[in-house]
Amino acid sequence: MDEKLRAPLREQLVNCSLPAALEAMGERWSFMILRAAFNGLHHFEEFQSELGIARNILANRLGRLVEHGILTRDAMVKDRRKIHYQLTEKGVALLPTMLALRQWGERWETGFRASPVLVDARDRRPIGPIEVRSWDGRVLTKRDLLWALPEDVDDSGEHGRGDDADDDTATSAVRAAE
Amino acid sequence: MDEKLRAPLREQLVNCSLPAALEAMGERWSFMILRAAFNGLHHFEEFQSELGIARNILANRLGRLVEHGILTRDAMVKDRRKIHYQLTEKGVALLPTMLALRQWGERWETGFRASPVLVDARDRRPIGPIEVRSWDGRVLTKRDLLWALPEDVDDSGEHGRGDDADDDTATSAVRAAE
DNA sequence: CGTTTTCAGTTGCAACTAGCAACCTAGTTT
DNA sequence: AAACTAGGTTGCTAGTTGCAACTGAAAACG
């Protein structure tokens, strides 16, 4: 690996969003609960009997997911006992992560496609593999990729697609290459 | 929700590759170690000082990742004390998962882009967001997605890439969560 | 109305896991 | 040989997981 990158890399490994993400989702049952939520479950007892998770752990995990803004928690009007848990936008945003993990498990652990299958509603074909792509959609493999410091990044492609535009960080966006 | 899907869904939620994936990667430090490995670290002491993880936990996690075939472990020829940990193909295959999680953290937790940034070596632009796509590459949002049972899946698009399958077509599926 | 059932949790307690600091062992350097 | 390194292991404490049994409030039943 590039020595120029090596030393700063050291300092910056800490400064990563991964720990923050794992703070919210790093516990054992979190992804399982999330998956159940994606599959349309909304109530405590549903999660409990579905996942076979201990009740206290489930209560704790649900509470944490609510705290982190991944689920909302509301008593239902029709039946005040029933709590309705629902994915927020932030929670839904975890779908690619969950699918990537699941696909990896299918390919490298279980060896077969899990059910139910997530399909494109339009043609009922299974979704494609979650992949790393360039800003303009080319599939990238490990050989196409490089770790770069913010100064060496070309940020000019950031304003073409619909991902939010308040990227004020990182930017002495020097044209490093080309 | 559709009752026709509901009952089978119950039985099948267990039969998912997610638990298998979490068995390998679900522990607290696993993704952090993986990330360090992606950043080019190879040795015990590097991981240790980089991540600030306890030595016994690190030893245990590295051992587990090796057991699961995510890392290889080899004594170096030049210095028999030094152990060289290296990502296997299976380990590298976790890159999309790790990036999806990281990107989610950037967008929803820390709010800024972490460093170092993964860029396309060709143009030094940051990689695009990890997204769910159809078999032919269209970006799919939550509204485009359905959970379907294997019988209801159209598998005819499966022969462009290396995933195995055979099933026929029918009809009954359910919109992805609500 | 009182009783029973259901839902979503708590509480108490045992077993297991994470984390720190100190120690160990084989291989390497001086 | 003595000292040093890399990569662990061990002992101990603090926290987490998990089961089972209990609670409390809202709904359903008779």
Model description:
The structure is a homodimer of 178-residue chains. With 178 residues, the first copy, chain A, is of the alpha+beta class. Chain A folds into two domains: 16-93, Winged helix-like DNA-binding domain superfamily/Winged helix DNA-binding domain (Arc Repressor Mutant, subunit A), CATH 1.10.10.10; 131-178, no CATH class. Chain A is built from seven helices and four strands. Chain A has helices at 3-12, 17-25, 30-38, 44-51, 55-67, 89-92, 95-110; strands spanning 71-75, 83-87, 117-120, 145-148. In chain A, a hairpin with a 7-residue loop joins strand 1 and strand 2 (83-87). The longest helix of chain A has 16 residues, at 95-110. The first copy, chain A, is globular. Chains A and B meet through helix 1, helix 2, helix 3, helix 7 and strand 3 of A and helix 1, helix 2, helix 3, helix 7 and strand 3 of B. Chain B binds a DNA duplex (30 and 30 nucleotides) through helix 4 and helix 5.
Strand and helix layout:
Two copies of one chain form a homodimer.
Chain A: H1 3-12, H2 17-25, H3 30-38, H4 44-51, H5 55-67, E1 71-75, E2 83-87, H6 89-92, H7 95-110, E3 117-120, E4 145-148
Antiparallel strand pairs in A: 1-2
Chain B binds a DNA duplex (30 and 30 nucleotides) through residues 27-29, 43-45, 48, 53-60, 79-83.
